[in-house]
Amino acid sequence: MNNAVYKIDIPANEPILGYLKGSKEEKALAAELQRQSETVIEIPLIIDGKEVKTGKIGEFRMPCDHKHVLARYHMAGEKEVKMAIDAACKAQQTWCNVPWQDRAAVALKIARLIADKYRAVMNAATMLGQGKNIFQAEIDSACETIDFLRFNASFMSQIYSEQPVSDATQMNRLEYRALEGFVFAVSPFNFTAIASNLSMSPAIMGNAVVWKPATTAILSNYYLMQIYKEAGLPDGVINFLPGQGSLIGNVVFADPRLAGIHFTGSSSTFNSLWLEVAKNLANYRSYPKIVGETGGKDFIVVHESADIDTAATGILRGSFEYQGQKCSACSRVYAPASKWPAIKNKILNMLSEIKMGDVRDYKNFVNAVIDEKSFDSIMSYIEKAKADKAAKIVAGGKGSKEKGYFIEPTVIETTDPNFVTMREEIFGPVVTVYVYEDAKFEETLKLCDGTSPYALTGAIFARDRMAILKAADMLRYAAGNFYINDKCTGAVVGMQPFGGGRGSGTNDKAGAMLNLLRWTSPRAIKETYVAPTNYPYPYMD
Ligand code: NAD
Question: Is 332 close to ligand 1, i.e. is its CB under 6 Å away?
């Protein structure tokens, strides 16, 4: 019997590889990009470890070249959703009793496979399928995915070692049970790492999962499923259900065994899921735990004391990397009148050098947005700015969906701090700047705090320490991730636990122990050595 008390130390973050021309990793990636570009794969559902084909087919295309089909995927119907729930509930009976260090070993093995054998596969699938350039893919589908798996194994070990006080008369223990039922994981298109974390963090804590991936990220997500299996994740622990969200959701929410929802996506989708849960509340065996990381309207406030180059670079990278399709992407800027002309100049100079195009040409800093629906929605905001006197396009403003869904990095300047592009999430390469009078810094912070319903990420650029303190204080609830003299994107697992409040979600901090705590339902066990033998208390004598 294995009776050792294990501890898994906090790991180091996975190093980001350089992909210099001719390097080992660059050659491996080039070969894999070619292989995936020349193949059309068939993606089944995976229920209880078995491939299920429904014949109801969707096509998965490259955002940079939308005539190019990369995969055809089967879509779940009601029957398959029920099968997946049954499979998860059955698998959980065994999985939750697997020693935690063995569950950790599966997660750590997945991380190792992605770090070595499948790094190129995961990066190529994320580049071609989700439209990321190599750097954006490397920090997501390789590094962040690996970090989530390794850090979560360590966090689990810390959680389990957290135990209550005992004394000479009694022993007290906390048993960290899995939830009673299954967890529904619903993932967005924009991060392969999030897809992996939404399914794996409940699983590592002993839960079984019905996972609905975004069909716009289906290729990388399917490879993840295959890696899970190769690493020895038992059948049925994670069931993979591509398909229409509302169809799958309707069956899931009606099932009394629903024990948790692990969601990342837009606030409107999250609100609709929560309402469905509320409607079915009386039917559930337990109150489902609901974790949702949702939309953002992330900001950068520049103070008059800020360094121009760092502020301009923070705005450019924060707004336009991955075409602004990060939940944390900078989308509104408050710039002081004295500094804005110089910052704008620097941004325009950098933009004049930036290239846009296919992910396979590494010179392209900007690539395509995810699909036609997104393209049309982002362009509609740019059109609104063009048509309104309160706004002016100072860079970009054009898009073309002829070959791929390309939109130029666009900077809008507005005189109205409540202009629609200052308030609503656009989720594309568009940033709006409101220029304020230097003397109205505090007023501007108030404006920033109250303009949008979201509170995900934000940044202050300033040299003046009092200005930094003022911003940190007045924007306390405006962002769950707050940056000082850095762009508002790029949270690293273990370093900047991620998540926001207000309309941006439940702030359960992916990449931290706080998230894993949601996937356990502790049982306190007291054993006494001095049990009373009669009911009266001494004071009654
Ligand atoms: P989305 O809301 O359109 O979709 C998210 C997932 O929900 C998809 O898998 C979708 O199919 C599914 N879905 C939709 N309706 C459903 C229903 N009725 N029942 C069950 N599932 C349903 O989001 P998206 O476009 O994939 O991602 C972009 C959004 O995600 C943005 O709003 C972004 O801010 C947000 N996001 C937030 C974070 C964060 O950590 N806060 C991280 C990444 C993305």
Answer: no
